What does this fold into?
Amino acid sequence: MWFVAWMVVVGAALAIVLRFDSAQSWVLSQLQGAPPPTPHATTLAAQGERAYMNGDLAGAIDLYGQAHQLEPGHIGIAFEYGRNLIYQSYAGRSSASYAGDALAVAEEMVEQAPDDARSQALLCWALVEANRPHEAIGAGLRAVEIAPDFAEAYAYLALAYLQAQGPSFMLDAAQRAVTLNPESVDARRALALALQSQGAVDAAIQQYETALQLHPRLDALYFELAVSYKAQLNYEAAVAVYYRVLALKPDSAKAYTRLCETQYTLGEWTRAQEACEQAILLEPDYIDAYQQLGEIQYKRRNFEGAVESLATCAKLESAQGIAPGARDVECAYIRGLALVYLGDCATAWTLFTDALAMNPDANERRAILAGMASCAAYEDEFDLADIPTPEASPTVPPDIIDVY
It folds into this structure.
């Protein structure tokens, strides 16, 4: 009798174990097949901030974008999302659309929270990138009125004054930004740009180096620092800055292209061409690399290569939706000059005509007209009377912000 009772107990225990194992297997299978839980917006934003500090703007934009979608009314997340979009727009002309995305984010923020200084401040900066300085000044002034101790608001207001050519207001706003928050990268950058626009290049360099101590992986600061060295004609120092970028980002097509341009200026044509070719290997759609490579090939009398590179430049500009006013005049007129040497004045004349409509500077215009005169001198179908009369080019302030 006791044996039968013992068998019943053992059987019941075994059944429980088997049912537990079966249930455990089912639960595990369901967990393995289920999608992972969605991270909270603030978690994604924290991950985005880490990506930003690591210099991974693309990753930061992705993470901040997800966070913004989860909580579109979170002004802090939207503000950082917009900042990263604008910095990413500096990667090259093919990245310029990021600034438009930032403007859309800023406008949405202002609609949701018009009395939040971060909304107005981001709108100010985004309007600067849209080349609307007077509207930007209005947004910046509203931001500092709402929050007189918000350093970034003064920094972006300074950029708006810089674009509107208001030197005294610009410098005052930038200095105020740094005073309010000496640890702000955007404030230091604004002061550097303001100082450089006033010819205080050494002081600007010091501000860039301080900003780089705060954020040593933000490559936009390096490119603008190199512009400061070039303003001093210290091209060797600029080259060293580009190598600093490449130490952080070995796959930076922009760094190789800027290295190519600078080495070309130094007369190191072979090394310059190698740098441009490396940029193209890394990023086959990087417009500036083709433009600079084509210019080098033309100078080295490789006219066929110049025509090919500059034609690719023009094709990419069209494919990527670059506005006509923002296209490289070199990709038109230097290709035309190369075609003159190759005996194709019919195509060259069209390119010269297009180039004249692209607001060339005085030196570029002289080269274009010389090319047209060469065609008119040797082929009857091109008449000197068809060459437009030279006009004085308007005085345009130099672009000291190396955004492309």
Observations:
- Residues 1-34, 392-401 have pLDDT under 50 and may be disordered.
- The chain is about 75% helix and 0% strand.
- The two ends are 92 Å apart (CA to CA).
- The CA atoms of residues 185 and 211 lie 5 Å apart.
